[in-house]
Amino acid sequence: MVGVEIVDYDLFHVPPRWLFLRVETDTGLVGWGEPVVEGRARTVQTAVEELFESYLLGADPRRIEDHWQAMYRGGFYRGGPVLMSAIAGVDQALWDIKGKHLGVPVYELLGGPARDRVRVYQWIGGDRPADVARQAAEQVEAGFTALKMNATAEMRRVENPAAVEAAVDRLGAVREAVGDEVDVAVDFHGRVAKPMAKKLAAALEVHDPMFVEEPVAPGHEDAFPAVAAHTSTPIAAGERLYSRWDFKEVFESGAVDVAQPDLSHAGGISEVKRIAAMAEAYDVALAPHCPLGPVALASCIQVDAAVGNALIQEQSLDIHYNEGTDELDYLADPSVFDYDEGYVDLPADPGLGIEIDEAVVRERAGDLDWHNPVWRHDDGSVAEW
After folding, report:
1. Which of 89, 250, 328, 359 fits as disulfide partner to 334, beta carbons 3.0 to 4.6 Å?
2. pLDDT digits (tens, 9 = 90+) for 69-79
3. Is 289 a catalytic residue?
4. Residue 25 three-state SS
């Protein structure tokens, strides 16, 4: 086998809150990854640098599985958001290189396409959802057939009926604006405690949401069965789980219907492909989490293309986080993410199927300091964001 070697890498903090990884080989091939924990980008950058300086520089980028195992098992301490996000970005870049080296999209290396296009959904509203009915109607007019919105802003552990009614009314306004042929998912964002998650999931059922997402905060996965027992609405979860081992207990509970690993947090393409296979064994669908940039989205689409249980794909166009910069701004050809009737076609180009506009990346790169807000309840105690 003709040798290929990793000779250089660069990391770029770019607006609105992303970290891009550029990996270069001695043959001139370049692969891109997106290793980031939103609000902890500098911490993840350090982890990526450690992986390259201690192990990856000089290595053959085509040995993806071997590198994944070495990055994960080569340190005594493993798992968690920082290490797994660092591994995820490296893994994405290595798949990008391998696809380009062989002249095929990554999904061809994962077994070939299981579908011709991938359904996507569009965000409406913001962290504190408002004016969602108008936004919903606009996005349906733009061609989207599935939407997602936050259920609520801050919510105390036990709330008054008015808080639940307000959430139900918001979803009802969206349902009235778009009708029954449009799917509307509702994100609890881990900001609802178990007592209210049970009440809220049951109350929202009248408007038939596509799924309720992250009904309780991470660490409370044991509460999923209790929430599921109060509603027939599918439960979606997993954006803050980082490996197949984290998902194992969730799948075994039988309470989660849609798995949402993040391709930039859960070990990249290699690990999410494995998580998807595990999910299928438990009759669970895959809907990767991706309120991030174009490299993360391209990686998601490669996995969605190659697995049988992919349901729908999150994407960040016009999402409330992307003030001043959006996912298309860093692409030489933004048309690769053209959305038509709520779907995106599979990319035909090799690797991840996108061409990053490196000049724009270098121009906009800087020392970003994005952090999620710290919310507080009326009594001054910290609330879940």
Report:
1. 328
2. 999 999 899 99
3. yes
4. strand
**Tokens found for residue 240:** 């803050």
- The architecture (CATH level 2) of 108-351 comes to Alpha-Beta Barrel (3.20)
CATH code for the structural domain at 6-104: 3.30.390.10
User: Could you say which of 13, 101, 189, 265 is catalytic?
Assistant: 189
pLDDT band at 1 (very low <50, low <70, confident <90, very high): very low
Q: Is 371 one of the catalytic residues? A: no
Among 2-6, 19-23, 32-36, 362-366, the least confident range: 2-6
The reported pTM is 0.95
Other CB atoms closer than 10 Å to residue 321's CB: what's the count?
Answer: 18
**DSSP 3-state of 78:** coil
The answer to whether the beta carbons of residues 328 and 337 sit under 8 Å apart is: yes
Phi, psi of 183 (to 5 degrees): -80, 135
Task: With a cut of 80, say whether residue 329 has pLDDT above it.
Answer: yes
Instruction: Give the residue among 239, 260, 238 at the shortest CA–CA distance from 249.
Output: 238
Q: Which of 101, 207, 265, 289 is flagged as catalytic?
A: 289
- Ramachandran bin of 297, using left for φ above 0, alpha for ψ from -120 to 50, beta for the remaining angles: alpha
Q: Where are the domains of the chain?
A: 6-104, 108-351
For the stretch 98-133, pLDDT in tens is 999 999 999 999 999 999 999 999 999 877 777 899
Cβ burial, residue 281 (10 Å; 0-12/13-18/19+): exposed
How are strands ordered across the β-sheet holding 6-14? 6-14, 18-25, 30-33
